[in-house]
Design a protein that fits this description.
Layout: H1 3-8, H2 22-28, E1 38-44, H3 63-70, E2 73-75, E3 78-79, H4 85-94, H5 98-101, H6 117-123, E4 127-132, E5 145-149, E6 159-162, E7 167-168, H7 173-188, E8 195-200, H8 239-242, H9 266-286, H10 290-325, E9 332-338, H11 357-360, E10 364-367, E11 376-378, E12 382-383, H12 387-395, H13 409-412, E13 426-430, E14 442-446, E15 450-455, E16 460-465, H14 483-499
Parallel strand pairs: 1-8, 1-9, 2-11, 3-12, 4-5, 4-8
Antiparallel strand pairs: 2-10, 5-6, 6-7, 9-10, 13-14, 14-15, 15-16
């Protein structure tokens, strides 16, 4: 880009990206159009990439979510900095790792006074709104409108927190979140301003309560079991054995719908009991034990999980249809992601938290007509730290130096190909121990093939070669054949901890 053009950009209504690494990225990316795009950021909770049919080998069909991929780009290698709900959200808002944004684990309180990308968009003339799951303990800041769940929120009849006080709704939460989002789009926003809508679902978070119309879907389906369902956790660090997130032991009667559902209206309870009553009676009569019981639990779990996703997919379709019908789709950047990955029975687990692949890797689908070529796929290493920078660059807003990610715009506008100077490794750090599911604290580095993980409370290491062992069944740490790789990964880990300024002490006080 020439100096003359850089001088003229402000005269054209654009903001030059002044961050020291942004200039080269902006040169590689298409310059945003003078008309700022609308931004629709969609995030589900615990939505595994294995449960989106835009990804190969998915268990289910998600035709509306797939529209984003079919009309845009699918990222095959997108990851997270910290695989847990609240911290992931704080990272996305700030573009900073947990140790810098102050939100290490669920139960912390987000410091809403710090810089966030919605605040920067507000200053650039955007109307901003967040609807759905928030899970950051403090009230949203940087949003002109907000209607968010209290904490995790229920699947039915939620209370939504708003700037005008709490409001109670009757119905299925996934539908209600969409109703509120559409009402804001249709009735409350200024149509003469660009908008940011952060549209975030509670589903498919535990305990996976399906909506009324999907209660009996998959009753006649037997889903294939993961071939690691009965993993014995040998050949890995001790944390894999000592965790508490197995289908066989940790999944409880409430998760499995073997106890009466709570918080339902009489009509909702009638439908619920009609769906689960006969199925539960058949289970009780079968008196299953051992592996047969685990297999039944897996089927009950995966069906309920996918039923919740069916409602998410349907509601995403409602919002995409609105954009189409109102002529907004052409000038709207749409992103679909999850706050992290999730286990769908792999290694006998549910939940997330680990740097292992199913937890560490998250879906990312992006659509922006005229900028992102339809149907493209990228293998560039991406991370949720990159989302705010991407949004800001698309909007023509200066990216603050304190943000630690990379704008994905060069990848998006480059048919999925990463620039020559793109990152070659990713850094991860998980803190929530002691805590739910007993996953030990750990940090690590991943370079697209090798993954080095350090469990610092245990002083144990793992090294995986995902080309030879994609399911991460055998750590090769300490094996002579991998001595050179191990040394190289240690050096990369040291470099990334210094780059991201992570000198976090081993004990992190809960705030």
């Amino acid at each position: 880009m020439t100096a003359t053009l850089r001088f003229l950009l402000p005269m054209l209504g654009l903001v030059w990206l002044a961050s020291p690494w942004c200039a080269s990225q902006a040169d590689a990316a298409d310059t945003p159009a003078a008309k700022q795009p609308n931004i629709l950021f969609i995030m589900a909770d615990d939505h595994a990439y294995q449960a989106i049919s835009a990804y190969p080998g998915a268990l289910n069909k998600t035709p509306n979510i797939d529209r984003i991929a079919n009309e845009g780009m699918r990222f095959n290698r997108c990851y997270v900095t910290n695989s847990i709900c609240g911290p992931a959200r704080a990272v996305i808002l700030t573009g900073k790792y947990s140790h810098l944004n102050g939100f290490y684990q669920n139960g912390n309180r987000f410091d809403g006074s710090q810089m966030t990308y919605p605040k920067l968009l507000q200053k650039a003339g955007y109307q901003t709104a967040v609807v759905g799951k928030w899970h950051l303990e403090t009230d949203p800041t940087g949003f002109d409108f907000w209607s968010v769940l209290r904490g995790q929120g229920p699947y039915y009849n939620p209370q939504m927190l708003t700037s005008d006080g709490p409001k109670k709704f009757e119905g299925y939460t996934t539908d209600i979140i969409t109703d509120i989002a559409l009402d804001w789009l249709k009735e409350k926003r200024d149509p003469n301003k660009p908008f940011l809508l952060v549209y975030q679902h509670k589903a498919p978070h535990r305990n996976w309560m399906p909506g009324p119309k999907y209660l009996n879907k998959y009753d006649d389906v037997e889903f294939p079991e993961p071939d690691t369902l009965f993993d014995d956790y040998s050949n890995r660090a001790s944390g894999a054995t000592n965790q508490d997130m197995t289908i066989v032991k940790t999944m409880n009667a409430n998760d499995l719908k073997l106890t009466p559902a709570r918080g339902l209206t009489p009509q909702q309870k009638k439908l619920w009991d009609a769906a689960y009553g006969p199925k539960n009676k058949a289970f009780e009569e079968a008196k299953l034990k051992g592996d047969a019981l685990v297999r039944w639990k897996y089927q009950r779990y995966i069906k309920d999980y996918l039923r919740c996703i069916d409602s998410v997919d349907e509601n995403v379709g409602r919002v995409l249809d609105y954009l189409d019908d109102e002529g907004l789709a052409e000038n709207t950047l749409v992103m679909y992601t999850s706050d992290q990955g999730f286990y769908l029975g792999e290694h006998g687990w549910f939940d997330k938290r680990w740097m292992y692949e199913e937890s560490f890797r998250t879906p990312l689908l992006v659509r922006w007509p005229g900028h992102v070529k339809a149907g493209t796929v990228s293998d560039a290493l991406a991370i949720n730290l990159d989302y705010p920078e991407t949004i800001l660059q698309a909007a023509g807003v200066e990216i603050p130096n304190e943000m630690q990610g990379l704008s994905l715009m060069p990848v998006l506008t480059g048919d999925g190909k990463a620039p020559a100077d793109w990152r070659d490794s990713l850094y991860y750090h998980y803190y929530e121990f002691p805590g739910a599911h007993s996953v030990p604290r750990h940090y690590g580095v991943y370079d697209g093939r090798y993954k080095l993980i350090y469990y610092y409370q245990l002083d144990e290491w793992e090294l995986f070669d995902l080309q030879q062992d994609p399911k991460e069944m055998v750590s090769v740490y300490g094996k002579p054949d991998y001595a050179d790789v191990q040394a190289q990964m240690h050096e990369k880990l040291k470099e990334l901890r210094e780059k991201y300024q992570d000198d976090t002490p081993r004990k992190v006080a809960k705030k």
